[in-house]
Amino acid sequence: MANDINSLLSTQTNVPTQSQKQTEALNSLANNFDNFLTILTTQLQNQDPLSPMDTTEFTNQLVMFADVEQSVRQSGQLEDLITLNRQNEATAAVGYIGQEIKADYNEVNFQGDPVTLSYALPEEAKRATMEIYNGAGELVRLVQNMPTTYGDHDVSWDGTDQNGNPVPPGAYSFQVGAVTEDDEPIDPTYKTGGTVTGVEFDGGTTTLLMGPVKIPLSKVLRVEDPTA
What we know:
Strand 7 (170-179) and strand 8 (185-186) form a beta hairpin. It is built from 3 helices and 13 strands, in the order H-H-H-E-E-E-E-E-E-E-E-E-E-E-E-E. By secondary structure, it is an alpha+beta fold.
């Protein structure tokens, strides 16, 4: 289910912010450092003048406190940058709604009309087949004798299963199995396209929706304005 962008960009009051966590860590570090200084001062005041204590360990601990403090501050700054980047990504993703996209993905939104299944081979294959699956992961169509030449290939699918029966509308994935002359597997790449109908945010991941098809934002290759 798509989340409301305002709820994504706002900070929940019952969840500690990264800034609060950083402050708590620094306060804890300061308290420990104060205790350390108290112990050090007490030992220095009560040491035997004829046998002064070795301060090497205390010096090492002072260096350790400085390193920990720096790490806490850097961690907080990094988390702030990550949060800001996610907010910017979420805001930008909303602008994709209504736009036509091409993506490096192997799912299509079938709504009754023929759809184009696109793939590319990095080299010529001896043979290639295509398998089409429904949203439940069930094989609905196996196509033999797919194009095997190097490069891009577009295949039209009319939305029928292996027996020629029409399949219901929904998201369908497709996979191409291709091998070389030596029967070594070839890894094809895929492309899909359509109109973005919504945006989904989940756990810091931004996903574009083309009807029932969910495409990670990172998979988008091209964006086009359909009115241009």
